[in-house]
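Entry type: protein chain
Record version: 2
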Amino acid sequence: MCMNIVFVIDVLGLEGLGAALTSLIRNCSDTKKLTLHFFCSNVDSRDKDNILKLLEMENYHGATSFHDFNAIEMFGHLKSLHGNWAIYGRFIIPKLIDSEYALYLDADLLILLDVLTINEIKFTDQFLAAVPGGTFMSALDGKFLVNRLGLSKEQKSFNSGVLIFNIKNWNSKSISHEIDQICDQYPHEFISHDQTILNALCNGDFHYIDDRFNNLWYPDRPLPIRHNYHNSILHFSGAPKPWDLFGKRTHSGYKLWSDYNTTFWQKEYGTLTMSKLRRTWKIKKSLVKRIIKGVNKL
């Protein structure tokens, strides 16, 4: 059975994407069983060619497809993440993937396990599967979920960096319509952006998967949450990322990430650009805090 894997990317997501793809391929037992879908916002033909070249260099034998969408046109009325709207591209996965299930992966991951093990996860009642985190009460967007929407503060939330879509259930429950309604009503109140919306619609009713499938590594931590990280999907959550400016000094995961960041990809996307400088300015508070505190090395 083919496994459909989706990445939603824009220009800023490309630098992290290289190591995510390399780690996924190197740790997969049979890439012929994979179909990689790239949902691209403001990604040009040269970038797509570079993705294909990296896959070829890593001996990827599965299928590949690219889907273009205009994130600003579709989601520009919603709250952005540092001026980025591509994150809402997760919402169009069920519209474009013709399959019962699809795995969504962020571009800021290292896939250190055989991704085909996730293909064994099946669920028939919910429309999403994710790693459960804390409750709505402790979530960053908890005030909105509890006070504005009236949801229970005890419901479980999730990080949306790794998701399994049950597309059949998504469509039968008209989730896309539900998303349009909540976006029209609260366009500027999504503190965690698409994650806020998905948590609101699930309201704790999502299929729980093991925490090794979304092992969060915050920049102020010397290790990820699940210390036995060698058989997990590492998620470089928050800012700065290992590949951000000064990442070698500010993130303990830099060495591990750089092991999967190929020379080819570093040459193409590791240089200083105006986009990278703009991102550095937007995350300057987090960056300065990490530089002042320093990091604990592995």
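Comment: The longest strand covers residues 3-9.
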